[in-house]
Each structure stands twice: as structure tokens, then as C-alpha cells.
Amino acid sequence: MATSSTIPTSASGILRSFPRLGARRLLVLGGLSLFLAGTLLGDVFAIFILHPNADRIGQALAAATAAVRQHRPEAAGNSFEEIGGFLENRGTKVDAHTHMIGFGYLAMLLAILFPWIRLSERASRRLAVLLISGGVVLPVGVFAIHYVGLAYSPLESIGWASIVADAGGLLVVVACAGFLAGLWRGWCTGEPGVQAGARTDDDDALLRERSWAGRVLMAGGTLLILAGLLHGAWFAGVDLYAQEKQDHDLLATMAESAALDPGPGVIPERAGAALNAYGMLQADHAVKIAAHSHVIEFGLIALMAGFFQPFIFLSEKWKRGWAVVLLAGSVVLPVAVLAELRFGLVAGGVADAGGALVIAALAGMLAGMFRYTGRLDALGDSATGGRP
Amino acid sequence: MKRSQHVLAVAGLALAVWAMAYGFYYAVWVEHQTLEHIGGSLAGAFQHAATREMDPSRANLAEYARAKYVYTREVDAHSHWIGLAMVLLALAALWDRLAFGERARGWIAGALIAGAFGFPLGVLLQNYLPAPLGQGIAVAASGLLIVAFGLVALGFAREGES
């Protein structure tokens, strides 16, 4: 892979705005790593857990309906306990996935806004470490909730994993409040950050980015977010309330049909039809929510990746290639997810491939960023004679 | 940094802090109990049906539907506040590329901020106000947000042309 000579011969200015182990570099690399880890977790979850889990929920609901028919309230209760476990398994993995990605965004956005945050480098670095640490601790804690349960917990309904996750969330809140205070100070004093020479709007590499790849990513990201907003408005207006009513009506039909309908069979015909319709309803709801949230998430990451183009040490050809791959995956995944109801596993496979494209593009960009920082540090070392 | 840009950045980060603080409060004090209530009501509905007590079964199912309605809006408010905060922060960084005068930028920033705060608030208020009122606030705020975001896209496109 050829590289462009995007790093100037004099690295001192860039080193000031992007110092080794500095807050900004921690935010960029930590944020992108969190996003990548969250996306990978989501892809693995979608392939190996989501569909089998949905099948198990359907089977347990059918068992509960059969228990109603057979006058066995305890068995019905046991089936719902199982469903609770399956839903917790799914919910905690979705939460770990979304929070990891969300904290990744936050870290990258703060890196972009860094010139306007008036804090000392030391304070900024501590806040960045706090943010990245919380961004790791919360999703790991949430992920563990299903496996740890209430073992050795001092509380009645909250286990140790939840306590750890909440502590991680608190770290992120404190870090963001600190950065907000810095942004507020910058506004009140009208001054940029501490390293004024390198951290103003005009000479900040991230803020003046105008390359082809950067422009395409920013325009594509804006359009993806707009598409996501419009899709969300359509979903809320047309589907949400109707689906909530259907959810109640179908469950009522299952319970009443199993209890009162005459005739033989473990599950009466009307209850069976309601069970099938309920499965379809859950799938319809899930794919629409997933398409809405993913198109906006990918729009945001495309926007941010647009900013970071100056810090990616790859040839222009590779930068353009990764930009196109990222946008292609960002369109393919939500569209294929929406098509899953009609085309089943084929569309599911295409959606997973779309997710893989996004992961590959971001991994390529992250590798370019590591090469950039390595090159930058080497230039810094040669400029200072190896002194830190 | 222009005034409208700074307002957008501060509002975006303030909204993110607010959304995370709300999420923290919700996760610690509300969510576990709410999920148990939802699951318990649904299980109760089927258990009563198994003993052919249909009135308590229907009451439990209605309780389940109500609890799930409230839970959905509480979680939606949290996730939309944080998502829209990210959008405001990203736009703040891009703000100098918007091909509009500072006055127009100020109006667009104001509309984005009002929409980003107001839309999830309207969603959450559906739990406490008559549903049409909460829906009205959410629809008006989301409309404001979409129009403002459309103008932002137009502003970026005009910058590209110039």
C-alpha cells in the first residue's frame, strides 16, 4: 500500500495539536477503537445470537399458551421466566453494542471540538482517560449482567455487573461535564485552548479538511442522517402506535383463545394464528428500529471519518476507496435489514456483509491513523533528538 | 468561532451530559423495577387465564401494555437525546462550511437545538400528559428538526457549489 506524503517535513505544529499520549490523540484512537469494537460485537451478535434467541422466545411463548390450555399456571409462569432470560440476553447485548458505539462517537466528537475546549493538557488527558475507561467499563458491565445475575449482590434487584456498568456510566458523565466546563470557559473568555499556536480554527487540520474523501464522507453522512430522521418520523407516524396495539391484542387473543376456545389440540387454531402473527410483528418492529438506528449511526461515523482524513497516512487512492466502501456498507446494511422480512436469510446475509464493509473500511482508516501517529512520533523524535 | 457555532457546540455537549445523567438515573432507580413489572404483568395475565380467571387476566394484560408503553418512551427519550446531541456536536464542527449568513445560521442553530431538546421531551411527556398533547409536541419538534437539518444539507451543498 503506497502512502502519500501528507505529513509535513516540520512536524512540530501538528505534534502540538496531536501530541503523543495527548488528550486529543487518546480521544481519536480510543473513540475509533470503541466504535470498531461495538460494531464487531453487533455483527457477531446478529449472526450467532439474534435469530436463535428469537426462535427460543417464540417456542417459550407457545409453551406458555399450551400451559394456559392445560390449566397449568405454574408452567405458564416458568415459560415467562425463560422468556425474561432470553430477553435479558438480547437486551444486554444490544445495550453493550449501542453504548460502546455511542461512547466512541462522543470521544471522536470531543477530539474534533478540542480546539475550543479551554482546559490544560493535563486536565484534558485525565478527562479523556476517564471517558475512554467509562466507555469500556459500562458495556463490559452491561454484557456481564446476563451471566452474573444477582450472585453475591448486596441489592435486591440489581447485580454486581449492573453496579459496575452504572459506575462506568458515571465516569463518562463526569468526563463530559468536565469537557463541557472547558467548552464553556472557551466561550466566556473567547480564547482557544492552551496550545494556542496550534489549536485555532484556521490552522487545525481536522477543522480545515477539504479533500475529496473528506467531502464525500461528510456529504454522504449528512444524507444518511437525513434519511434516518425521515424514516424514523415515518415509522413513528405510521407504525409505532399500530404495533403497540397489535402487541396487546395478539397476546390477549393467545390467552383467551387458549383458555376459552372449544375443540381439541394443545394450541387452538386462533391462538396459533396469533402466535405466528406475534412473531411477525416482533420481527417487523425489530428490523424497522434497526434500520432507523443504523442509518443514523453510520451517517454520524461517516461525518466524523470525514474530519479525520488528514490524520490517515494512506495514499489518496486508498483513502477514496475506504470512503466509498464505508458509504456503500452504510447504505447496504439498513436497506438489507429492511428487506429481511421479505427475503429472509438472504437479506440477513447481505446486511451482515454490509456491516463487514463498514468494519473493514474503519479498520483500514484506523490502521492509516496508527501509521500517521507512528510517523509523526518518529518525526518528533528526530526533531528533538529522541528526547520526550 | 462564530456565536451560533459555539451555541450549537455548548448545547450539544450539555444535551449529551443531560441525556447520560438521565440514563444513569434511569438505569439505577427505574429500569430494573420497570422490566420486572412488565414481565410480571404478562406472566400474571397468562397464569390467570390458565385458571380461567379472565377478568384479572385482562387487567394484567392492560397493565402490561401500559407499562411497556411507558418504558418504550422512557428509553426512546434517552436514546434520542443522546443521538441528537451527537448530531449537534458534529454539525457544530462543520458549521463554518454552511453557506448562509450568521443571522440565518443562528436561526437554523436555534431550530436544531429546540428540536433536539423538544422531540425527546415530547416523547417522554406522552407518559404524563394526554397522549395527543405529547404527540403534538414530539411531531412539532421533529418537524422543526427535519426542516433545520434539510436546510443544513442545502447549506453544505451550496458551499460545495461555491
Report strand % of chain A: under 5%
Gyration radius of chain B, rounded:
21 Å
- The structural class of chain B is mainly alpha
Relative helix content of chain B:
over 70%
| Mean pLDDT reading of chain B | 91
Cα separation of the termini of chain B: 21 Å
Gyration radius from CA atoms of chain A, angstroms: 25 Å
What CATH architecture of the largest domain in chain A do you see? Up-down Bundle
Helix count, DSSP H or I runs of 4 or more residues of chain A: 9
Biggest interface:
A-B, 77 and 64 residues
Structure description:
The complex is a heterodimer of chains A (388) and B (162). Chain A is mainly alpha-helical. Chain A is built from nine helices and no strands. Chain A has two domains: 11-204, Four Helix Bundle (Hemerythrin (Met), subunit A), CATH 1.20.120; 209-382 and 384-388, Four Helix Bundle (Hemerythrin (Met), subunit A), CATH 1.20.120. The two termini of chain A are 30 Å apart. Chain B is mainly α and 162 residues long. Chain B has a domain at 3-28 and 75-155. Helix content of chain B is 88%, strand content 0%. Chain B has helices at residues 3-29, 31-50, 54-94, 102-125, 131-161. Chain B is elongated. The chains are: A mainly alpha (388), B mainly alpha (162). Chains A and B meet through α2, α3, α5, α6 and α7 of A and α1, α2, α3 and α5 of B.
